[in-house]
Every structure is written in C-alpha cells, then in structure tokens.
Amino acid sequence: MSSLSRVVAERVARCPFSVAHEYAEDFFRQAAARGAEVGVRLRDVVPTLGGRLRQPVQLVSGRRPDEAESGRAHDELEICWTAGTRFFPDFRGTLRLRIASVDETRLTLEGTYHPPFGAAGLVFDRLIGRRIARATMRDLLERLAGAMERREEAYRGPASADDGSGSTA
C-alpha cells in the first residue's frame, strides 16, 4: 500500500490565458506575504455539517516549464504548503493553466501528500481524507479564480459590461 495520495481539482476562470499566469503568480505571492491558509467547507466532506475548517500554512510557489504536454511551451506553477500539523499534511503540487476559450482559462491543480498517522491514516484517507484533500484544493481554486476574475474585471472596467449593441440604457 503506497503512503502517497494523489489528488486533482479543476476550475475554469473568466480570465484570458494571456494574463492568467501573471494574475495567479500575484495571488500566490500576496497569499504568502499576508499569511496563507487552506480550508474546506465541512459540508463538502459530510453533507449534514455546516461551517468551515481552516488552517494557516506556509505557502511557496514558483514558475517552471511545464513538460506535461508536447507542442507549445507552457509554464506551470509549483505549489507547496506546510501546515505544521499532521491533521493537514504537507502538499506538493502543480497548477497548470490552459486556454479554455477566448476569455477563459482552465486551472488544474494536481498534487500529492502523505496521509498522516500510519496505517490508520491510510484507511482514513481512503474513506474520507481524499475528499477533504479535494475539497481543500477546490476551495483554493475558487479563491484563486475569484481573485483572477475580480482583477480582470477591474482591468476591463465598466466597458466590459457593454453588451456590444452600441446602445446605452
């Protein structure tokens, strides 16, 4: 039985690919500077529960060449966090950004962690731990995509609300 768990989460952001890497790098740089945290909505793990579970983490990110696809060269962001507690294991992953459409970018975060607490932790990971990990990654992608979308909306300004008809109401 391998003690390394692999998880993947995806989200499409309303942000052109041409600026997505810049926005993502700024998000992670700011998160690391102000004190990052990872979190999960408890209902993502157990549908009858409410509230959120959050944990401060030390976050490190950096751009490197993406070798997952042949053809056009891309960069990816390496994302690592350390929570300092065994309840939130250290995570090491990769954020890949791809063109989803003219105005959208697909964010794919995949990575690995070692489930804590030995054999009992492996059982817990199979039963619920991976769900917690995926929910944590989805939460991070939601916050990243939201920041990217707000930044793009601020850049485009009120003109982005124009429907293209040329009329004003």
- What is the 3D form? globular
User: Given the helix and strand composition, which structural class is it?
Assistant: alpha+beta
Beta-strand percentage range: 35-45%
Strand order of the largest sheet: 1-6-5-4-3-2
**Mean pLDDT across every amino acid position:** 85
What's the CATH class, please?
Alpha Beta
Helix content: 25-40%
Radius of gyration: 18 Å
Biggest sheet overview: 6 strands, antiparallel
Annotation field: number of helices: 2
Describe the structure.
With 169 residues, this protein is α+β, with helices and mostly antiparallel strands. The protein has one domain: Alpha-D-Glucose-1,6-Bisphosphate, Chain A, domain 4. The radius of gyration is 18 Å and the shape is globular.
Write the layout of secondary structure elements.
Layout: E1 5-13, H1 17-34, E2 36-41, E3 52-66, E4 74-82, E5 91-101, E6 104-113, H2 118-156
Would you kindly provide a brief summary of this structure?
The protein has 169 residues and is of the alpha+beta class.
Annotation keywords:
single chain; 169 residues; alpha+beta; Alpha-D-Glucose-1,6-Bisphosphate, Chain A, domain 4; six-stranded antiparallel beta sheet; 2 helices; 6 strands; globular; disordered C terminus
